[in-house]
Every structure is written in C-alpha cells, then in structure tokens.
Specification:
Blueprint: H1 3-26, E1 30-36, E2 46-49, E3 54-59, E4 62-67, E5 72-77, E6 83-88, E7 94-99, E8 104-109, E9 115-120, E10 125-131, E11 136-141, E12 146-151, E13 156-162, E14 167-172, E15 177-182, E16 187-192, E17 197-203, E18 213-216, E19 221-226, E20 230-235, E21 241-246, E22 251-257, E23 262-267, E24 272-277, E25 283-289, E26 297-300, E27 305-310, E28 336-341
Antiparallel strand pairs: 1-28, 2-3, 3-4, 4-5, 6-7, 7-8, 8-9, 10-11, 11-12, 12-13, 14-15, 15-16, 16-17, 18-19, 19-20, 20-21, 22-23, 23-24, 24-25, 26-27, 27-28
Length: 343
C-alpha cells in the first residue's frame, strides 16, 4: 500500500474510533433497576468487584455482598459495629473492612465471607485502600487524624502516619503512591508507600470539605468532590489544580471511567448523579436524578454500571446540645441499591 494512502487510512480509522468513543461518552445514564436490600441502619462506601460480579456495600454493623448479575444478596460479613469502607487484594483472596465503631480493620475471606482477622487501627478508621506495590492496606482514621499502614502478610500495623487534618476517601495510583482528601483543611495529601511518609500537601481552591476521590491512573489526575457543588481536578504528580467542574449538591463519593474518560459524583443532598467529561474541558454533561440520600457510589468498568445506595427517611429529630445536627431517621427495610447504566 502507498505510504500516503496508508497514513490517510490510519488517520480515518483513528478518527472513527475517537468519534465512536465520544458518542458513547455522550449517551445519558439512567436508573435501570432498583435492588431492595432491606434491613436497618445507615451506610457508607460501596465497592464493585468486576472479576467476580459482586458488589460490597457497607451497611451499619455488616457488609452486604450482592451478585451484580442478579441483584440478589449472596452473603454478608457480620459482627462489626460501624462499617465505612472495603478494600480488596488483587489476588482475590482477602478483603479489608474499616470498622470505625471498633477502631479496627477486619480481614475477611473473599470465598466464604468469613472473618479471619481483626487488626487494631487508629480512632474511627474510615476511608481504606489497598496499595499493590507494597502489598499494604491504608486505613485513614477520621478522629485520630492519621493513617494506619497494615502489612497484609503479617496483618499488623507497620506504620502510623500523622495527617494535617481529618482524612476522607483515599486512592492509590498503583505505583507506590497514596492520595487522600483532608476534609477540614480543604487539602489533598500525597503519601509514599515505600517510605511510609507524607511527601506533599496540596491546597484545593473553591472546593470545601472534600470527601470522595476518584483517580485516572493513566493521566495521573485526581477528582475530589466537595461541598458547594464542585469537583476539583488535580494533577497527581505536581499537585496543580487543573479545573473545577460543576456537580450536584452534597457529594460524598466519586468514580472514574477510564475507557470513556468520564468522572462521576454521587450527590445525596439533591439526589443526583453527575457525569463530567474529563476528555473535553471537564464539562458537566449530565445530572441524573437518583434519590435523596444517595451520596455514595461504586463504578464497575466491566459493565459500565454505577451503583448508588439510599433509603427512605422519617422525621429529623430536634437538635440538642449533644447532637446539634441530627440526621433524619432511616425507615426500616427501605435500604435500596439503584443501578445506573446506559443500556
């Protein structure tokens, strides 16, 4: 084939692929199913396990395990006090749960869902992440404002790193670095997993109380969702804030679709799911109505499905000196998973 003709064919094919990806990225998400879980108690983070078609959902003193092909519960990890987050090892053997009520990380067998170990952490471990280079689990302790680094082979804490404020959700980049939002300081911290040290603190502009975080490992970008309907986009190598995208109200979790370059935010205050185009100027292309209280989420890239959880609420109690900002009561057996997809 003539070289010029070959180049033209290659260019046309590339443009076709890019336009096809762009078309997929622009298709709107919708609520395609409701999976009623029931039970009582509040909830926090959830995590998809694409390889095994499972969804782990923290739910008060237990973690629900749901089959994503059927929407049916297939098990639960129980016996805890106040679950927050779940991390999974890449080998498929063990999972790790931050039990904030018991100030520990619970290790469970991913085949049987049986608890195999309890590892003491700091005060109120919340966000949690598995770091694959060092094979460690990082539990970020909300009240003691530090992070417990757990060696997964010995199941012991090998380092405790002080943080400048209250940590929220972390992300690992797969190359030996861990990042975390510092909620009360409007900052992101960068940590080195090999040296087990804090290496940088980056301020966020126009982004109050950052909570959920997602990562684009390919392009080294972090997406922090904040109060004030803002998502901060930060370069994970330099700490430079690249953009601030508009999202819904009351976010608590974020997600990222690497294939289509989309960033997500689940917003509990107004009950929306925001979709931001990370490839074309960080424009918000959708604010899908979900349900009030649906503030946390998980994204499954293998099926292009997102999951948010919420419940029905009763009246809000009157404020007291001990509890000046009470939450509305959760109606029993109303806990539900909303499935979001494009087909």
């Amino acid at each position: 084939m003539h070289l010029t003709r070959h180049r033209n064919l290659y260019l046309a094919t590339s443009l076709l692929c890019l336009s096809g990806s762009w078309a997929v990225a622009q298709q709107p998400y919708r609520v395609i199913d409701h999976w009623k879980i029931g039970g009582v108690g509040g909830w926090d983070y959830l995590l998809a396990d694409p390889a095994n078609h499972l969804l782990y959902v923290t739910h008060g003193p237990r973690v629900e395990v749901v089959d994503t092909t059927t929407g049916k519960p297939v098990g639960a990890i129980t016996g805890m006090k106040g679950t927050h987050g779940v991390a999974l090892d890449p080998g498929g053997k063990f999972g790790y749960i931050s039990d904030g009520g018991n100030n520990e990380v619970v290790v469970f067998d991913r085949k049987t869902f049986a608890v195999v170990a309890h590892v003491p952490a700091g005060t109120n471990p919340d966000g949690i992440a598995y770091e694959p280079v060092t094979k460690t689990v990082w539990a970020f302790n909300g009240r003691s404002k530090n992070v417990s680094v757990i060696d997964t082979s010995s199941r012991t804490v090998v380092a405790t790193i002080a943080l400048p404020g209250k940590p929220e959700f972390p992300q690992a980049d797969g190359k030996g670095h861990v990042f975390d939002n510092i909620e009360d300081k409007n900052e992101i911290v960068a940590l080195d997993a090999r040296t087990k040290s804090l290496t940088a603190t980056w301020p966020l502009s126009g982004c109050d109380s950052p909570s959920g975080m997602a990562i684009d490992q390919q392009h080294h970008h972090l997406f922090s969702v904040c109060d004030g309907k803002a998502m901060a986009v930060v370069d994970a190598e330099t700490g430079r804030q690249l953009a601030t995208a508009s999202i819904g109200d009351g976010p608590d979790a974020a997600g990222f679709d690497e294939r289509n370059q989309l960033a997500f935010s689940s917003n509990g205050q107004d009950g929306t799911f925001s979709v931001v185009d990370a490839a074309r100027g960080y424009k918000t292309i959708e604010n899908l109505p979900t349900q009030p209280g649906a503030r946390t989420m998980a994204y499954d890239p293998s099926t292009d499905r997102a999951y948010v959880v919420t419940a029905q609420f009763g009246p809000r109690p009157d404020p007291t000196a001990a509890n000046p900002h009470p939450r509305s009561t959760i109606l029993p057996d109303s806990f539900v998973i909303l499935v979001l997809g494009r087909k």
